[in-house]
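Help needed: design a sequence for this.
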C-alpha cells in the first residue's frame, strides 16, 4: 500500500493526492501533523528517502528560522526538532515498496509509481 505523509493545508500535498486519485492509485494518508512520527519512524523514513535529516527540514519555516537556524545540530537533534515541530517535515512524502520520495514534482511521483 502506498502511504503519503500529507498536510491538508499544503497545496503541493493536495496536488499530490489529486494526482494519485486521477491515477486510480490506492493510498493511505499519514496525517503527520496530528500523528507525529516517532524518532525511529523518522530514521526509517530518512533511510527510505536516502536523505540526511537536514534535507527533510523545511528550513524556511518560521519555527526553524527562529529556533534552529545557524546552530550546530547533530542529526539526532535535527530529527528531534521535526518530532517537536512536525510542520518542519517536508511534504508530501510518498512511500512505496520500501522506498520514498518527496512528492512535490508530479513527474517524479509518476516515475516513482511505475
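Sure. Designed sequence:
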Amino acid at each position: 500500500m502506498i502511504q503519503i505523509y500529507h498536510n491538508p493545508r499544503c497545496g503541493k500535498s493536495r496536488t499530490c493526492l489529486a494526482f494519485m486519485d486521477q491515477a486510480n492509485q490506492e493510498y493511505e494518508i499519514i496525517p503527520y501533523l496530528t500523528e507525529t512520527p516517532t524518532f525511529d519512524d523518522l530514521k526509517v523514513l530518512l533511510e527510505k528517502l536516502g536523505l540526511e535529516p537536514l534535507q527533510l527540514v523545511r528550513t524556511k519555516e518560521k519555527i526553524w528560522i527562529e529556533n534552529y537556524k545557524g546552530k550546530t545540530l547533530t542529526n539526532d537533534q535535527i530529527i528531534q526538532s521535526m518530532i517537536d515541530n512536525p510542520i518542519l517535515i517536508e511534504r508530501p512524502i510518498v512511500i512505496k515498496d520500501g522506498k520514498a520520495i518527496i512528492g512535490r514534482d508530479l513527474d517524479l511521483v509518476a516515475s516513482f509509481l511505475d
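The chain has a mean pLDDT of 97.
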